[in-house]
Design goal:
Thrombin, subunit H, 10% helix, elongated
Length: 99
């Protein structure tokens, strides 16, 4: 289940992860070819476009991106951990309704 958002920061690099999305915690070994989440991106959203309605849906949040200890640059050859927001849908819907 997805939470509808009218606007949200869109990371095109996340779109290949669609096949990994389910109700389990999300950890991926997808390789980004030089682009992807990095330090400071925690909380950014993985969003999915429903092509039938042209509405973007928030599916997960960046929790942890790895840094190469030698270069102190993003290490896109290691896993990125995402928080699966489907487990928080009731709280999200209640919070959006209260605002």
């Amino acid at each position: 289940m997805y939470s509808r958002l009218s606007t949200f920061l869109i990371f095109q690099a996340f779109l290949p992860w669609l096949n990994l999305l389910n109700t389990n915690p999300i950890k991926t070994n997808y390789y980004f070819s030089g682009t992807g989440p990095c330090n400071g991106d925690s909380g950014a959203g993985l969003v999915i476009l429903d092509p039938n309605t042209n509405i973007w849906y928030l599916r997960a949040l960046v929790s942890l991106a790895m840094v190469d200890n030698n270069t102190q640059r993003c290490d896109l050859n290691r896993s990125v951990v995402l928080t699966n927001i489907s487990k928080f849908q009731a709280w999200i819907q209640q919070t959006l309704t209260n605002d």
